[in-house]
Hints:
The structure holds 2 protein chains of 2 kinds. Chain A has helices at about 10-35, 55-60, 60-95, 100-110, 110-115, 115-130, 135-160, 165-170, 175-205, 210-215, 220-230, 235-260. By secondary structure, chain A is mostly helical. Chain A has one domain: MetI-like fold, CATH 1.10.3720.10. In chain A, about 45% of the residues are buried. In chain B, strands 1-2 form a two-stranded antiparallel sheet. In chain B, helix 10 (about 205-220) runs antiparallel to helix 13 (about 255-285). The two termini of chain B are about 45 Å apart. The mean pLDDT of chain B is about 90. At the A-B interface, helix 1, helix 3, helix 4, helix 5 and helix 6 of A face helix 1, helix 3, helix 4, helix 5 and helix 6 of B.
Amino acid sequence: MTGDHVPARARLWLFALGFLVIAFLVLPVLIVIPISFSDSSLLEFPPRVWSLRWYRVLFGSLEWRDAAWMSVKVAVLTTLVATPIGTAAAYGIHVGGFRLAGVLRLLVLAPLLVPVILTAIGLFYLYALLGLNNTLTGLVLAHTMLALPFVVLSVAAGLRGYDMAQERVARSLGASWPRAFRSITLPQIKLSVLSGALLAFISSFDEVIVAFFISGGEMATLPRKMFSALRDQIEPTIAAISTILVALSIAIVAMIAVIRPPAERD
Amino acid sequence: MNEAGLLADARREQAMLAGLATPAFLILGVLLFIPVGWLFFLSVVGPDGYTFENYRRMVVEPAYLSVFRTTFELSLLVTVLAVLLGYPLSYMLVKLPPRTAAICLTLVLVPFWTALLVRTYAWLVLLQRHGVVNTLLARWGLIETPLALVYNFTGTVIGMLHVMIPFLVLPLYANMRAIDRDYVRAAASLGASPTAAFWRVYLPLTMPGLTAGTVMVFVICLGFYVAPQFLGGGRVTTISMKIQQNVATYFDWGAASSLGVVLFVITITLLWGISRLARSHRLTGLGP
């Protein structure tokens, strides 16, 4: 244990700075919680009187409820569409060993490489021609495209750690290809598929820039609605939504910690 | 079964596997490659045929030049600050006992998974004139008049930094964890002071993760839209915001597209450069 020690004084500074940075990352996210339980319409901290006033406003508002419901619908449908399509693509590219596999892998990442604003105005232009702006179908298709890289990357990582010979053995023993995949391969890569699905869900649920262009009015998603609301005023209703979303994100982090196979943990 | 039969079988399998990948590429093609390709086309056509007017304007008009300058200054500053704060954080994570490190890493990830608009809103609450930070500073007697922390360049930098630190920490921490401690021990046993061992042995070993993280942070910063839109208070205009204005306010698709194309080309060039660098690191055995 000797030799790679950081000297005690340097260590103290390092840890002090490190924990300050963690505080900088975490505290701002948590600040919305007390603000949301305040009775005042000013954003006071700490609140002088506690109440559920802003939650009542939030749940009483048809517009916010519609937006939340819209976001859930879009994110669930996106997950249901992107997960099988992305998994199939990852499997096809991985097993196929095509000459252009490298190019295909790069092309799948394109939604992450093209600046979102460019994707957004491109989709807006295309949807104007196809009549898909302000439709559920349009949103789900767009979010599916944006979510594909997450699913493909996640499943491809799972397949790299999996010995394809097992599937070939099952098939040589008479199992059909789909059956061999379903009963031998899928169970072993299911955690990768699951985390891909989770990423697809979150990427859709949080997506704001594309939604800003191609959805609005009754078809607005929650981030889209928050975007407009933030422009107008910053009242504590948004703190109440934010608190719910923060709780959701903490639940997701906990879920990921559980999903990750023990081998990847410390 | 004869050879021809096996070959036909193999070809059928290949065709099926290609078929499996088709839906994904169909979606990417129709929803991304065609529209973005169309925007590329729009950026070079004018009312009378092909023109480079949209690109010429970027180089000569001060309004455009200042948008580029703002975007690069912002991205550079945020990247430097992210390195200065993210490096010690990652270093601390590898020095902590595994269980504590796991908890800290989870804390780093909570903002990472929190919706961008929630974080932006949180910063508005914290930094505005009568916001939490100013209130607390005044109560503790540290300031007399509220500081202008938001609706300007400062607020934008703070908001973006908060988003970007995890993007630097994740690749860097992965790199640091893969480093064999024996290297630093060897340096110490050969008489290097801890400071020298850090600067001359440890830091170079973390370069692959640091470069990857730095370039990624810089590239993502270049495309920022939400944070400058809300925290900049109209004083900060990034390339992405200019693109949005061109489309929504002026319906100038050519101008918007050409800006988008430039942003795209810069992004791809930087990422391509970093992947080349990563490959050479691997060749020289420096990579993780």
